[in-house]
Amino acid sequence: MEAKFPPEPVMTDVTTAWDDKFCDRCKMMSSSIIREILKFAQMPDVISFAGGLPAPELFPIREFEEACAHVLKTDGQRALQYSMTEGYGPLKEALAERMGKYGVTTGPNNILLTNGSQQALDLLGRVFIDPGDVIVTGKPTYLGALQAWKVYRPRIVGIPVDDEGMQMDALEAALKTENPKFIYILPNFHNPMGVTLTLERRKKLVELAAKYGTPLIEDDPYGELRFEGKDLPPIVVLHRENVIYLSTFSKILAPGIRLGWVVAPENIVRKLVLAKQGTDLHTSTLIQMITHDIVKRGILKAHTKEIKRVYGERRHLMTTSMEEHFPEGVTWTKPEGGLFMWVRTPEHINCMELLETAIENKVAFVPGTVFYPDETGLNTLRLNFSNAQPDKIIEGIARLGRVLREAIG
Amino acid sequence: MEAKFPPEPVMTDVTTAWDDKFCDRCKMMSSSIIREILKFAQMPDVISFAGGLPAPELFPIREFEEACAHVLKTDGQRALQYSMTEGYGPLKEALAERMGKYGVTTGPNNILLTNGSQQALDLLGRVFIDPGDVIVTGKPTYLGALQAWKVYRPRIVGIPVDDEGMQMDALEAALKTENPKFIYILPNFHNPMGVTLTLERRKKLVELAAKYGTPLIEDDPYGELRFEGKDLPPIVVLHRENVIYLSTFSKILAPGIRLGWVVAPENIVRKLVLAKQGTDLHTSTLIQMITHDIVKRGILKAHTKEIKRVYGERRHLMTTSMEEHFPEGVTWTKPEGGLFMWVRTPEHINCMELLETAIENKVAFVPGTVFYPDETGLNTLRLNFSNAQPDKIIEGIARLGRVLREAIG
């Protein structure tokens, strides 16, 4: 993309009065390595399992068209005007009702609308993390949470995650000595691992949280995308107001609208509202009203059913292809929902280096180490199965199989 | 708004494991007093000059409908998918071109799209302000900037603003001794005062900024809403890459979409992008593409002309009514654009107390003191002239005149 102007040299990397003005906090900001990888992954002919994108061919575009037209025709002045920081009332009510169906008893005042869950993570960091505070996450964990929180300078204690979710004995050892501000947990179809916290561990988690008085942040972007097995109760149902629950429309509707929500006790919602007011006043009124209109039309149930069918097929196709093409010594998780799968290679393989060979062979993934707060996990990688078409999955996994066989020797 | 459930007591103000977990930063967060005032201002029969809302009857609703339909029909998958943190490329190009017309020579890489200018203010604080840093603002200044920056704990040095804008002798005195990180300036139709920095002072400002090596943040939400007099060159034209320039679609299109932009040297844009990535990944793709579609349709010029006509008439009606109804000893600014006007009462009047009497008399304003970093300015108040219909302006000013006459005695 070339700029048609400027007519003369412009604001490139010239020396300015700003140059020595960056603050210490900037040192804690790093670009997601995923973003750098995505640049390569977008090269022609590369089959990418690197991103975390939903399948765009499933987006309910027609429903968005209808909702946009309806909202603007019937309530256009409201949709384009400033609105409350807390969020659009009718959408908060609909979400409270929705949460009620999962056994979470809340009212609209327990809900804050955010610009995707990422903003919820930032606001929580802003409201709870003092420099030096200990926070507990999985090891690995969602990269966006690490990015959001690092600027607030916590000490992050990572707890190993296995095929049954976060390891509870390791968690208890940490709680005994570390007095963390909170535990951050992704119970369903964990990003990056795809694993789900078992019911037994959920009960143990809540028992430990109560014993040590440690509150929890439950991040649940994929909970509704279970295509196999049985739903398990959210942590917030088991431990109620000691849990702040996050979810989003990104995976059940569309990520490009940037709309998520927080469920929390009222006094916490009030603090988060103050924090949000200073950061962007409120989330787009138009986007909230369009989304409310779509929710009201009652299409979400049928729509998520369709997403689950497609993602389930793609996950199945991917694991079947892996069984065929991946060499001995390589193992992987078998997610029952969500968007991601986790691969472990033999210890001597460095998946950061493996990515270079993979890109040369026109296939891309995310090295697992970027999801580890302590930058370990070098022999792991994350694959996304939601975005690629079936033929691409088959061909991409065959390519990755060749790369792995060559590396393992 | 009553919740239909909960079936049992829910997350209200119960004791939870979160209660002692709020961080020190929270102490710096306060709700905008304006928001509290707006609650009273929204009572039936109250004529409010308190908010900062555009006239909703001027929103180009039909153009939004057309743009929504066109974007979703022609490029729906892109509009609903994740996108780049920097913003939608074609909109950045259009904005760079637009800036070029004002004499600001930039390319798309100098532009970052934000969730309204408020997010730009937050990101700038996040990237530049270390605790204890001095920053210079007007006294009074935009309340949202104070709210955005206080959490980063700067020491704010306020420079008096008169009818010609920020006072340059006071600014120089501060620059001599304080070594501030930056100067924050609202040159056109200042919020809350409505005043415009004269050309002479603009030149002096740039001379001082160069002399002391202090960079500038130029906040220009209202620059295109001049209904009288002649446009003056933006500070960024006079001092180029030492100035970070902010603007927004809130006042020329609609605030409910939450879309603003930053113009800055590339290395600063890159830092702001990192900061934004951690806070919300990116701004709504759909909103950016809809806005780009509207910009491309070329309606903005005719649309801002209409806004200026209406606001100019309302400002004129308001000052004419004030001349008729306000008692001696009360003075006011005569803005040549924007949304706000500033009233000074005799020294012994406390406009915070005056507001109570005003609400009793069914008229509302914002006490000026809330815009002062040092909480002085008790004998001032802000009036909005963009939102109220002409008959309300006449009646509201008559009511406020009675309240003022009674208070002054």
Overview in brief:
The structure is a homodimer of 409-residue chains. Chain A is α/β, with parallel strands linked by helices. Chain A has helices at residues 33-41, 61-80, 89-101, 116-128, 143-150, 168-178, 199-212, 235-239, 266-280, 285-296, 300-325, 351-360, 390-408; strands at residues 47-48, 111-114, 134-139, 155-162, 165-166, 183-185, 216-219, 243-248, 260-263, 331-332, 340-344, 363-364, 366-367, 380-384.
What would your notes on this structure say?
Two copies of one chain form a homodimer. Chain A has 409 residues and is of the alpha/beta class. Helix content of chain A is 43%, strand content 13%. Chain A has helices at 33-41, 61-80, 89-101, 116-128, 143-150, 168-178, 199-212, 235-239, 266-280, 285-296, 300-325, 351-360, 390-408; strands at residues 47-48, 111-114, 134-139, 155-162, 165-166, 183-185, 216-219, 243-248, 260-263, 331-332, 340-344, 363-364, 366-367, 380-384. A five-stranded mixed beta sheet of chain A has the order 2-9-8-7-6, sandwiched between helices. The longest helix of chain A is centred in the C-terminal third of the chain and has 26 residues, at 300-325. In chain A, 56% of the residues are buried. Residues 1-10 of chain A have low confidence and may be disordered. Chains A and B meet through helix 2, helix 3, helix 4, helix 5 and helix 9 of A and helix 2, helix 3, helix 4, helix 5 and helix 9 of B.
